[in-house]
UniProtKB/TrEMBL annotation:
InterPro entries: Mg_prot_MeTrfase, Mg_prot_MeTrfase_C, SAM-dependent_MTases_sf. GO terms for biological process: chlorophyll biosynthetic process; methylation. Its EC number is 2.1.1.11. Signal peptide: none annotated. PROSITE patterns: SAM_MT_MG_PIX. One of its GO terms (molecular function) is magnesium protoporphyrin IX methyltransferase activity. Keywords: Methyltransferase, S-adenosyl-L-methionine, Transferase. This is Magnesium protoporphyrin IX methyltransferase.
Amino acid sequence: MTSSTYSLRRGQLTTYFDRTAVEAWSRLTSDAPVSRIRATVRAGRDAMRANLLSWLPEDMTGKRLLDAGCGTGALAVEAARRGAEVVAIDVSPTLVGLARERLPEIAGPGSIDFRVGDMLDPWLGRFDHVVAMDSLIHYRSTDIVRALAELALRTDGSIVFTVAPRTALLTVMHAAGSFFPKSDRAPAIVPVTEGGLKRLIAKESALSRFSVERTKRINSFFYLSNALELRRS
């Protein structure tokens, strides 16, 4: 059961991605020229996407994958090219519309079903793997773990996700956020400590059959993110 703070923040994110900064995110997730600051964000996101994909099987034929917070669909496309049956969902109808417009031809058995809605919707069904890249970074630790617990109820393999690490550098980056036009700023990122998050995961009964297998931090100046893999034992 999702908390009221999760629902509130999800609504804020819908407004941001669907109305406030559509043009900025459309450019960031394309090959269009961007500022030097946003270029570091683009490079960091590319590196993180590659890392998360490296934690998934090379051959995903017959596997069902949830791309939770799919944005414009770059990760979903790569998973589908490995043969996965991808359900790619996002709260923003505009970003999902862009993803559909940009969808290339997928050779082989893979497919993508783009949807608009909540990544925690139980009607999405069961999955072999779940990926939540930068879709949990705006939530506090308790809401992150609650979301992971709900996803775990219908995940048979692994959940790979990212959080914003609590570091001095990230604090500086937040202070430097004034470089961005106000209309481009997302709802605040909530930094968390890896150790604290792991302790909460260990206490969550719905995650008792999952363990943190590996972690990796990506640092690309204005993009700082920490990836974790939860795998069912």
